[in-house]
Amino acid sequence: MRIITQITEWFDHRLQLAAPIREAAEHPVPRNTASWFYVFGSAALTVFLLQLVTGILLALVYVPSGAEAWNSLQALNHQVALGWFIRAMHGWGSNFMVALVLIHMVQVFLFGAHKYPRELTWIVGVFLLLMTLGMAFSGQVLRFDQDAYWGLGIGASIVSRVPIIGPEAVKLMLGGPIIAGATLSRFFALHVFVIPGMLMAFVGVHLLMVLKLGINEWPMPGRIVRRATYEREYHALTKQDGAPFVPYAVWKDLFFAGLIVLAIAACALYFGPFGPSGQPDPTIIQTAPKPDYFFLWLYALLSLLPPSLETPFLLICPPLVILALILLPFLSGEGEKSWKRRPLAVLTVLLIAITLGTFTRLAQFAPWSPHMNAWSGDPVPARYIHGTTALERQGALVFQVKQCRNCHSLGNTGGKRGPALDSVAARLTQDQLIRQVIQGGGNMPAYGDNLSPAETTALVAFLETLHPSGQAPARDASRDMALGESGQKELSAKK
Amino acid sequence: MSTKPVLVPSSEVAISRRGFLMKVGVLFNGFAAMVVAVPIVRFLLSAVTRGHANAYLSWVPLGRTEEFPEGETRLASFRNPYVMPTDGKTVDTSCWVRHVAGDQFQVFAINCAHLGCPVRWFPQSGLFMCPCHGGAYYRDGSRASGPPERGLFEYPYKVNDGLITIQAGQLPTPGGPLAALSTEKPPCA
H-helix or E-strand containing B128? Predict the structure, then answer.
């Protein structure tokens, strides 16, 4: 023991770090901040450190070359002992880190911790969030597979819409005229050197300010933040009702961080690594690229926005959101901290969470994407064929062969891009069906050029049979008048 | 106290001998930084400056006309003219070739005009469909439905001695040079 003490003292005589470290560890914090609500920031930091470790391990094998990256990932997955596990830890770590940073941000906002004097801590935190998202996207690119390739294409398409500098910015982003080796290399540099370096510096500043300004006290309804008095009140609070951070509060951080590390390992073990999916070969076009989990909401948004709004939205909204986040502590730097007295804050968080959640959920089904194989793969339900005439059956064939099924479902199978057609005859009359098929409209292409009159007749005859058994098909009341008795007879003969 | 600067003897100004040297040092480093910054910025922007005035574009052969029967639309692929040793398979690109009639063709980019996903051709319904956000195009490349704001991008092509060549070399994006080249309505539309 004595020798250990001597060695420690030898080092500390030269480094002189023990005293400031002890001071930082034992700085008094308000007792009620030793709460399970205050553990998310330290957990995010833990995951960041874990990402550094697993990232360095992956870099031992990974080759950042357009020609070799995919193969080196295969080697990691299948050849290198436990390579798959380290990849899975890194991938799941990324998901956990984004989630923890977001949860930490929501907690900080609802507890009013962004208010005076912690404005800059919040702003640095906003940049930490942006860098975390940057790491998530660039990491997805390093998994140089089909999704990464087409994901880069989507990124390039978005960037190219920036007025004036768009096309040049695309070249800068891709490192050349197309998505290729240079693209991967520069995303590697971003993911491995640039963004992590900035993250470390910003995390340092973020933590330094937490130490200097003190951790945010538990918000009490009615305890108002005022610039003139806050700091005095805070120091009085830590004096009266304070406790040293270590060990009074830190044990909860330690427990939660450990739990998160185990949860990441469990997910890695159970779900395994992410991809890589197919090779990044642009001549393989049988692919339906989808972004990683945390960008799914964007994927949904890009499908659901009206086309004319898309470009303005993409180019104007992100800067506005970032600006709003940066300005937030200046717009509400004083006043109530407690979420119980800030209904607008709670509603904003709920609205954003529900919006993002809904878009993410929608993106998992992707109802806007045609089912490319529905026309050849999904059968017409037998009940829609049973007892039909030859013409109507011919129409069912036309329905399949012309790929209508890729966008329209029958019996809940097929695409969801257009409306389900199980009861279309109850909604549209014969004339309306013919018009819709030939001219298209709404979001449907016109099929006039691709259907012969015979095919159209058969198709519409089939569509007219699609109505619930207890419900009469839609009919044009004026037709009875126009056609007289003979017309009505003809119609009833059809039923 | 406002008169103090006047009262300071000139010898006191001389304390800034070191101050002066420091300023010279800062200036000198600023100069050195500028000298180094020029090549650094040129290096960083090389992907942009090299490709000015569509210098990345050149004519690449696609295949012989008999590989593309009249009235049909077929998948073809070509190698991007600008290749780096680490590119791997990414320099091979697909495109859809529609043989309209005679020497008249349309060569469509594989990339959807919305966000660049690969579109697939369905000859039965005469539509190109995009798997990502559901964009659809007619056989002549014009927009049929979905989020794209325009038709498919078209490569300029030439037919010489039965060989089709296209002008390619840059990822087709809504703001790229191909978009500008193919905004004119195709003659057969």
Answer: strand B127-129
In terms of Cα–Cα distance, which of A437, A405, A432, A401 is closest to A418? A405
Question: Is position B12 within any domain?
Answer: yes
From the list A419, A427, A413, the residue with the least C-alpha distance to A474 is: A427
Q: Are residues B126 and B40 located together in one domain of the fold? A: no
Residues B114 and B33 placed together within one structural domain of the fold: no
- B24 in the same domain as B83: no
Single-letter amino acid, residue A362: L
Residue A117 burial (10 A CB sphere; 0-12, 13-18, 19+): middle
Residue B37 and residue B62 in one domain: no
For B54, the closest chain A residue by CA position comes to A177
- Chain A residues with CB under 8 Å of B120 CB are 285-286, 372
Has residue B53 been placed in a domain?
no
Contacts of A289 in chain B (CB under 8 A): 117, 131-132
The span from the first CA to the last CA of chain B, in angstroms, equals 85
Q: Which residue of A has its CA nearest to B88?
A: A67
Mean pLDDT of B135-140: 91
pTM tops 0.90, yes or no: no
Please tell me which residue of chain B has the smallest CA distance to A177. B170
pLDDT on residue A299: 87
Domains of chain A: 30-365 (1.20.810.10), 374-494 (1.10.760.10)
In this predicted complex, what is the ipTM? 0.86
Q: With CB atoms and an 8 Å threshold, state whether A403 touches B125.
A: yes
Indicate whether B22 and B64 sit together in one domain.
Answer: no
Residue B36: domain span: 4-44
